[in-house]
Structures are given as structure tokens and as C-alpha cells.
């Protein structure tokens, strides 16, 4: 955060931007609140409550309980019976690691309002914070049975499965995401990464095709380009690869390497590509024939 | 056979800066030692931060290790260790992914160390090294005693130095390999930060 935002209206607009884009800039939010907005709270009008919520969550992220308590008390004063504020109270307990209290509040909210998605998701994070990944996965899968269209939840479930090295289930989550957004290059790239990690010639083939699609949709996706290069070279050196396809693979990997060097504005692009191709043989971490 | 594990101020600072840049996710990175290092008493002279998303996925890890390997050959270094901070604040055990990566590193550098960050001990004013080390030797993981982990020139000086870096919020300018993949112009070697750390 290099620029000094002196005017409260600029800060208000910046926070609105971050709210809309769901950015996690907690330190900056709290600093801006303390330095600028706190003195101009009255001028914010109805947006002030959204800002308070945003600052509250940012303060919890930074463990700045003073600011968090201030925001929560103001919100509680204005909206005493609100389930949304109750959920914020549960988050405060979560931040203080008082997970039982947090769970009690969340269960109460869910009992009162079964459609309250956010509270259910907070239960997942409580399990995750305690390192209880299996329980978090169970809670999240139960949630997704009801709220099937929640892309954020499918992505989170995918991350949880990856941490447990359950590649098939992680791939399934990304498949759900691809059903919603088949032209999202990031989902395509993620699917390819999971398939690559699973290993085996057939999975490499799938990975290559998904990386290709991702690179086609966004030629600047560096991970997709690297992935193309890796999959092509691995497949070309695999005995299962038919010889006419070998030449195609090698050409594809050269194309990807050139794209990468162009992106990097590298003057010695040949050095760059030979360095990478040279190292190809040495390191292979993924599960080749296991999973 | 108590072998010591030493971290240079640069390596230690980079580990802590990486942890502070992404306090809400797991992070990992590799540790570099001088070529021809004695694996009994290893001194890590540098650290290269890797990822803060999906540490378990293989392709980008392979790309990163290849590039780091290339760099090492020009700089007379070797990949000799690995560091990791868990996502959950209380987690003190290495996860299977970290173990697998470190075992792979140990194939090339025997007795590679896995440095774990103790999340609870981190603070803006560092008073403890906040690290614990386990070493992979003879196919087994062994926890190292605290006395066998040293930060150079000495723990106190390093902690003061890191605390100064944190107060200046230098972690905002820190670049890991994930950042480089998001924007290829970002320098994962953090060359510009190096002069500020020394």
C-alpha cells in the first residue's frame, strides 16, 4: 500500500472495490479504517454498516480485537436481532479459538434459518482451523448436497481433497466447476494439474488436453504453458507414445517454451528453454503408477 | 551423533518474510546449501520460497525445482532442505506432502532437513526462532534438539534483524514462485530484497 489515501471518499471507494472483489487485504483495511474512515463514519450512511462488517472481519484476521469489538458493538446496537450479526459474533469466538461457543451460535442460526448458507460454511472453517480436515470435508459435502451451485464451496472442497491427496475426488470437484464455467481457464488448468499429479500416461494425455484448452483461452497463463511443456516432454519420452505423436509433442513443448520466453522478454530464450528441457529428466515428484 | 543445522540470516529472514506475507495459507520453500556441503553439519545459506496455494500439486513443483536446480548450478549451491508452515495455527506435524518432497530432496542430499515453522511463536517482534527441525536420515524422520539449530550470526541478532524487516513491512514486496507464475516478471530470487536483508 504505497499511496497515501488522504481523502475519506477515496478510502470508501477503495474499500467498496475490495468488498466487491472479495480481496483479502486485512492489514490495509484496518490501517485505512484507523487512519481515515473511523473519523468520518457518520458520513458513510447505510454503506457504513457494510464497511463496519468488512473492518470487523479484517480486524479478526489481524487479531486486532479492539477494532473488532468496536465494530461488533456498533453493529449489535443497530441490528440487535440480526442473524448476520450473530454470525459475526460466532466469527469472533472462532478468532479467539473458542470453537464450542462459535459452533453453538452457528447451530442456533441454522436452526432458525435453514437456508443460511454462510453459517454452514463457517462450520467448515471451524473444523479446518482445528486441523480436522476429515470433519471439514464431511460438513462441506453435506452443505454441497443442499447448495449445489456454490462454486466457492466446490473450490474449497477441491482444495481440501488435494491436501488429503484424494485426487479423484478433487478432480470431481473441478468437473462440477467446469460444468458451471467451461471456459474458465483457471478451472481447466487446475483440472490438468490434478490429472498430472495423479500420474500415468492416460492422465498425462488428459492433462495435456486441458492445459492446451487453458492456454488457448488465455495464452498468458504461465502455469498452463509450463504444464503443456511438461506433459509434452514427459509423453514424448514415454514408451507408450506412438512415434508420429512424439514429433507433435516435441513441437508443442517447443511452442510453449517460446511463448514463455516471449512473456519473460528474455533475450537468451534458447538458454531459458534448454535449461528447462535439460532438467526434465531429473525430477519427477508425482505418483507415476501408484494412484 | 548430534549434527548441527545452521541457517544464515538471509535464509531465516526469507522464511519468516514468506510466512508473514501469507499468514492465512500454508507456505513452503526449499533451503540451499553450498555445493559440496557436509551433510552432517549443514549450513543453509539461502531459502527459495515456493508456493502458498495447493502445495500438493506436482507440475508447478517440478517446474520450480528445475529452475532452482539450474540457478543452483550457476551459483555453486545445492537444494539441501525444505521449509513449511501449516495453514492451521496449531499444527506442528509435517504433512505427507512435505515429507514426500523432503524425501525426494534427501535422495540428492542425504540427511536433508525439514524446517517447520511454529506458527504460534511468530509475532511482529520476534522473540523466539519459531522453527523446529526434523531430519530425514536412514529412511527415518528424527526430531532435532533445539540446541542443534542455530541462526547465524547468533539467534538474538537474527531475531532483531528480522523484527526490523517486519516493522518495515518488507514482506509485502516479497516474491514467491506462485507470485512469479501469476506475473512472470516478478523475481522469485528476491535479489532486490537481499541487500535490504544483509
UniProtKB/TrEMBL annotation, chain A:
Keyword Membrane attached: yes
Domain EMC2 TPR-like: 86-195
Key word Repeat present: yes
Keywords of this entry: Endoplasmic reticulum, Membrane, Repeat, TPR repeat
Assembly, per entry: Component of the ER membrane protein complex (EMC).
Main localization (coarse): endoplasmic reticulum
Function: Part of the endoplasmic reticulum membrane protein complex (EMC) that enables the energy-independent insertion into endoplasmic reticulum membranes of newly synthesized membrane proteins.
Lineage: Eukaryota, Metazoa, Ecdysozoa, Arthropoda, Crustacea
UniProt name for this protein: ER membrane protein complex subunit 2
UniProt family annotation: Belongs to the EMC2 family.
GO CC aspect terms: EMC complex
Membrane-related topology note: Peripheral membrane protein
Localization of this protein: Endoplasmic reticulum membrane
Protein's organism: Daphnia pulex
Chain's gene name: EOG090X0CGE
Amino acid at each position: 500500500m504505497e499511496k497515501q489515501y488522504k481523502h475519506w471518499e477515496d478510502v470508501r471507494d477503495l474499500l467498496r472495490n475490495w468488498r466487491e472483489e472479495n480481496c483479502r487485504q486485512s492489514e490495509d483495511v484496518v490501517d485505512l479504517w484507523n487512519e481515515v474512515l473511523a473519523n468520518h463514519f457518520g458520513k458513510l450512511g447505510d454503506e457504513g454498516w457494510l464497511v463496519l462488517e468488512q473492518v470487523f472481519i479484517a480486524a479478526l484476521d489481524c487479531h486486532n480485537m479492539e477494532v473488532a469489538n468496536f465494530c461488533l458493538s456498533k453493529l449489535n446496537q443497530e441490528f440487535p436481532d440480526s442473524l448476520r450479526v450473530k454470525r459475526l459474533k460466532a466469527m469472533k469466538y472462532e478468532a479467539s479459538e473458542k470453537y464450542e461457543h462459535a459452533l453453538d451460535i452457528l447451530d442456533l442460526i441454522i436452526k432458525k434459518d435453514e437456508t443460511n448458507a454462510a453459517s454452514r460454511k463457517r462450520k467448515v472453517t471451524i473444523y479446518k482451523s482445528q486441523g480436522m480436515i476429515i470433519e471439514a470435508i464431511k460438513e462441506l459435502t453435506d452443505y454441497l448436497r443442499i447448495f449445489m451451485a456454490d462454486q466457492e464451496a466446490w473450490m474449497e472442497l477441491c482444495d481440501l481433497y488435494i491436501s488429503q491427496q484424494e485426487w479423484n475426488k478433487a478432480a470431481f470437484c473441478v468437473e462440477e466447476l467446469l460444468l458451471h464455467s467451461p471456459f474458465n481457464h483457471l478451472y481447466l488448468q487446475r483440472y490438468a494439474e490434478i490429472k498430472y499429479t495423479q500420474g500415468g500416461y492416460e492422465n498425462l494425455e488428459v492433462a495435456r488436453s486441458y492445459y492446451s484448452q487453458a492456454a488457448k483461452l488465455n495464452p498468458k497463463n504461465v502455469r498452463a504453458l509450463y504444464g503443456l511443456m511438461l506433459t509434452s516432454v514427459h509423453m514424448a519420452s514415454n514408451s507408450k507414445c506412438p512415434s508420429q505423436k512424439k514429433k507433435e509433442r516435441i513441437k508443442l513443448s517447443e511452442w510453449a517454451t517460446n511463448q514463455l520466453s516471449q512473456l519473460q522478454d528474455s533475450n537468451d530464450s534458447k538458454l531459458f528453454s534448454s535449461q528447462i528441457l535439460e532438467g526434465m529428466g531429473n525430477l519427477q515428484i508425482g505418483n507415476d503408477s501408484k494412484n | 551423533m548430534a549434527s548441527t543445522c545452521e541457517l544464515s540470516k538471509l535464509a531465516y529472514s526469507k522464511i519468516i518474510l514468506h510466512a508473514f506475507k501469507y499468514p492465512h495459507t500454508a507456505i513452503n520453500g526449499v533451503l540451499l546449501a553450498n555445493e559440496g556441503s557436509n551433510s552432517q553439519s549443514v549450513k543453509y545459506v539461502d531459502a527459495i520460497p515456493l508456493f502458498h496455494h495447493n502445495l500438493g500439486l506436482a507440475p508447478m513443483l517440478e517446474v520450480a525445482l528445475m529452475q532452482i536446480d539450474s540457478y543452483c548450478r550457476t551459483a555453486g549451491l545445492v537444494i539441501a532442505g525444505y521449509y513449511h508452515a501449516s495453514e492451521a495455527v496449531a499444527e506442528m506435524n509435517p504433512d505427507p506432502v512435505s515429507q514426500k518432497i523432503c524425501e525426494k530432496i534427501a535422495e540428492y542430499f542425504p540427511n536433508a532437513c525439514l524446517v517447520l515453522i511454529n506458527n504460534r511463536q511468530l509475532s511482529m517482534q520476534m522473540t523466539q526462532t519459531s522453527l523446529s527441525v526434523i531430519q530425514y536420515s536412514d529412511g527415518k524422520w528424527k526430531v532435532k534438539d533445539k540446541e542443534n539449530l542455530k541462526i547465524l550470526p547468533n539467534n538474538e541478532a537474527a531475531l532483531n534483524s528480522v523484527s526490523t524487516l517486519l516493522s518495515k513491512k518488507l514482506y509485502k514486496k516479497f516474491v514467491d514462485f506462485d507470485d512469479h507464475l501469476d506475473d512472470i516478471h516478478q523475481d522469485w530470487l528476491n535479489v532486490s530484497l537481499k541487500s535490504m536483508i544483509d
